């Protein structure tokens, strides 16, 4: 059953814009610390993004893990993305407000949302949230998998809530109308942040722990609380969606269905955590993947469920047709076109209006 998504606003709440087949790309790299300078935004990258129907993508920039100085590295990454967008004015635009998503759709450009996957670059200075906001950052995820100065990640054994500094950072994010993203966070950090935030919060890329009991997936309590306060939950296209690690498109659908049942149809979307351009040579990539996983595990940065024999994406839901294929599968599951439109981007767009303003 086909669904025409041409007129839909499609928003990937966490994704990538990169050609992973290029030698210098992040996906081709065997390094642990990956930077925006490794991005390959070439003609194929842009053509594939346009062909996919995506309207806007929350791209990860700034410090996530490693030995680089978090604050300075993050400033460098912002400048790198500014340069990428400036080099492709007909294809790309930075998203600062919810209205910019409408502009991107109308003009046929790809909206780039600046987002962090770790608040480490804030360090012990909540006022830096204002600095980042002034530079165009619209989403800050509080933690990666490890603990940091604001709270615990999903793999931290303490399962603390927010630290006192973390509460100050959430307040600063609220003041500057920057999204509080609780992906990767530990359960207590997620619950407390959702409760103390003066604005709705998000979990931009996750799965449902009720279906697969892994730390990177969120409990029904977390999902329900975020949604009850007007927030947003994005389901990823990741191995954590199946206990075997070999997730398929059908698993993505099951997690979306469960999230809708828990959160309601107005609060669920997608955050694929992957690129649009597909990797061409999966055999060669598999050889590199083993090294990448080993390095992440040695650094304590990996999540339970990351293994060298599982791809960090869903093999049958990738490439330029990934959003159309998901729409088709949701239609087969009984979702109406209006509900599918919500899942593919309208819900994120409405959430953005609530946090960023029009």
TrEMBL record:
Q: Which InterPro entries match?
A: Metal_Hydrolase, Pept_M19
Q: Name one GO molecular function term.
A: metallodipeptidase activity
The UniProt entry's GO biological process terms, in alphabetical order, are: proteolysis
List the Gene3D superfamilies.
Answer: Metal-dependent hydrolases
Which superkingdom?
Answer: Bacteria
Pfam families tied to this protein: Peptidase_M19 (PF01244)
Indicate what this protein is called per its UniProt record.
Peptidase M19
